Amino acid sequence: MNCCLPKIYNQALLPFQFSLFGSIATCGAMVGALTSGSMADLIGRKGTMAISSCTSVAGWITIYFSKGVMALDVGRLLTGYGMGVFSYVVPVFIAEITPKHVRGAFTTLNMVTLGCGLTATFALGAVLTWRNLALIGIVPCCVQLMGILFIPESPRWLAKMGQDQKFKAALQQLRGKDSDISEEASEIQDYVETLQKMGKSRITDLFQRKYMRSLMIGVGMMVFNQFCGVNGVCYYMSSIFESIGFSSTLGSVVYSSFQVAMCSLTATRMDNTGRKPFLLVSASGMLIGCVLVGTSFFLKVHQVSSASVDAIAVVGLMVYGGSYASGMGAIPWILMSEMFPVNVKGVAGSLASFVDWIGAWTISYTFNYLILWSSYGTFLLYAAVNVLAILFVLIMVPETKGKSLEAIQTALNI
């Protein structure tokens, strides 16, 4: 299989080299995930987002000026680190600043913007050189850096740090100058004071019995978020479409556009329907998508090749991608931002994010090997993972819609 690589990589690569290039960004993301929680606790959510943006800018600049493989890989590591930090701090920040009745929608909109960026990247990549594409990658990072100057810090983080005046001012700014924040402010302060009596938390504290259910749900959802195979499909999407005789550029743009549409639909309905139903529909859709793609590849391997067989694969990929965007892509991050109390959110979030990026690296690294082993077997393997995801959601995951963060965390962790 081949991927859309810069000309530096336009040479015959061994599976090991090809897989390394496809997965190296996730190595940086793993480091970012490990440091994101403690960084967000120490310097705040805004400061952490600023550092992540600066690191991403440095990565894109390194890629733009790269003259060889080493510099290109360093740039990908830096941008990967930025991704790893963003993946934790952004959903946490959004969950902490939004009212409970729209928290799901606002957190899901983060995935909508990611999908829009992916679609734009696929479209621009068809007409621009990779160096020019790297320059464009700098733009959203700079926009976010400027935007951070005009937004308040997370009120819950300010309350945790004992900055009462700034906490109330930030909450008032977020809710509107004429809004009565007394009840919400009191609930947050009372909960933070209760947690502070427990002292500073370490990662070993997560394994106490009172946090065990939150930990199992948070880590478990991140496992299914990645081991459903989404990063392998995304990284090698162009090659998959080419293998079934479909335009790689058109297929990639349509795939990512469909994801944006499905994610947008989820954002408008999640706070009414709930997290759990969307997760079940999402995992079921991904199961169907994997079976369709696997069936198409099975028929092609056994020399049953026709337009209808290729159409089955295209439909399967669209069902798979749309289903992922409708639930499994965003909701695990929403649950992670909702379930953990503020005193352990840093270490818990870092662990959950690290597990997610370990999964991303594993899938992106092994996908090429799995396809070489068996194209249809790969997708049937991912189908089996989605069966387990459905069972996990049914048994373990609670419904959190319409509840305050403090109420969710008290129910799960006490």
Question: Descriptors for this entry?
Answer:
2 domains; Growth Hormone, Chain: A; disordered N terminus; mainly alpha; 79% helix; 414 residues
Figure out the total of helices.
17
CATH class of the largest domain: Mainly Alpha
Fold-level CATH name of the largest domain:
Growth Hormone, Chain: A
Unreliable stretches: 1-5, 7-13
**SSE string, helices as H and strands as E:** HHHHHHHHHHHHHHHHH
Q: How many domain units? A: 2
Strand tally, please? 0
CATH superfamily of the largest domain: MFS general substrate transporter like domains
The proportion of residues in beta strands is: under 5%
Averaged pLDDT:
85
Percent of residues in helices: over 70%
Q: What gyration radius follows from the Cα positions, in whole Å?
A: 22 Å
For the sheet with most strands, the description reads:
none
3D shape: globular
Structural notes for this entry:
The protein has 414 residues and is mainly alpha-helical. The chain folds into two domains: 14-151, MFS general substrate transporter like domains (Growth Hormone, Chain: A, Up-down Bundle), CATH 1.20.1250; 202-413, Growth Hormone, Chain: A, CATH 1.20.1250.20. It contains 17 helices and no strands. The protein has helices at residues 15-65, 69-97, 103-125, 130-148, 155-160, 164-175, 182-196, 212-227, 230-235, 237-243, 248-273, 275-301, 307-328, 331-339, 345-373, 375-396, 405-413. The protein starts with 14 loop residues before the first helix and ends with a helix. The relative contact order is 0.15. It is found in: Membrane.
